[in-house]
Amino acid sequence: MTDQARTPHATPRACPICGKPVEHAFRPFCSPRCRDVDLNRWLTGRYVVPGRDDDVEDPE
Predict the structure, then answer these.
(1) At a CB cut-off of 8 Å and minimum separation 6, what does 8 contact?
(2) Which whole-number Å values give the CA distances from 3 to 6, 9, 10, 12, 37, in the listed order?
(3) Residue 13: CB partners within 8 Å, gap ≥ 6?
(4) Residue 37: per-residue pLDDT
(5) Residues in contact with 53: Cβ distance below 8 Å, sequence separation at least 6, in sequence order
(6) pLDDT of the residue at 53
(7) Over pLDDT 90: what percentage of the chain?
(8) Is the peptide bond before 28 cis (omega within 30 degrees of 0)?
(9) Inter-residue contact 14 to 21 (CB < 8 Å)
(10) 51 SS3 class
(11) What's the pLDDT at 50?
(12) Which of 2, 3, 6, 57 has a CA-to-CA distance to 37 between 20 and 30 Å?
């Protein structure tokens, strides 16, 4: 068996921001712009990882 027979074919990925093909240098995005848009969304609170109701806030 060759290496190609054992390796599953990678499906082309799309940038999660604009849908263009992913560039290897900016993976998983297509460009520095889309990478920065994603970072801005995290920093401004648009993306939030929910916590449990019993999580205690740090008083500081």
Answers:
(1) none
(2) 5, 11, 14, 20, 38
(3) 21, 22, 28
(4) 97
(5) none
(6) 76
(7) 57
(8) yes
(9) yes
(10) coil
(11) 84
(12) 57
Q: By CB neighbour count within 10 A (0-12 exposed, 13-18 middle, 19+ buried), where does 29 fall?
A: buried
Please enumerate in sequence order all residues whose Cβ is within 8 A of that of 30, keeping only pairs 6 or more positions apart, or say none.
15, 17, 18, 20, 21, 22, 23
Q: What ranges in the chain are assigned the alpha helix state H? A: 3-6, 32-43
Residue 1 corresponds to which amino acid?
Answer: M
Whole-Å CA distances, 19 to 32, 41, 44: 14, 17, 22
What pLDDT does residue 54 have? 73
**For residues 20 and 14, is the Cβ–Cβ distance under 8 A?**
yes
* Cβ–Cβ < 8 Å for 22, 15: yes
